[in-house]
Amino acid sequence: MQAQKSQQRSSMLEGRCWLRYLRFIFRAFIGLAPIIYVYILTNISLFCDFYNIYFIFLLSMTFL
């Protein structure tokens, strides 16, 4: 009986660790998403003229 309780406890702790790890990865991705978005926008804007570059720059600044 005691061994079963300790096994349940360890599996709960393991589950909490996985949740904490997944939450960390998710927060890191959310933190990096604006940087990736701006990088993609600036690469696209290299093929545009100056006014479009300025417009895309202003658009990207709204998401930072």
Descriptive overview:
With 64 residues, the chain is mainly alpha-helical. The chain has one domain (2-62). The protein is built from two helices and no strands. Helix 1 (2-45) packs antiparallel against helix 2 (50-62). It is rod-shaped, with a radius of gyration of 22 Å.
Envelope shape? rod-shaped
The beta-strand count equals 0
* Element order: H for helix, E for strand: HH
Low-confidence blocks of residues: none
Strand content bin: under 5%
Number of helices: 2
- Mean of all residue-level pLDDT scores: 68
Which descriptors apply to this entry?
89% helix, transmembrane, membrane, single chain, 64 residues, transmembrane helix, mainly alpha
Question: What are the SSEs and their pairings?
Answer:
Layout: H1 2-45, H2 50-62
Give a summary of the structure in a few sentences.
The chain crosses the membrane at residues 21-38. The protein is 89% helix and 0% strand.
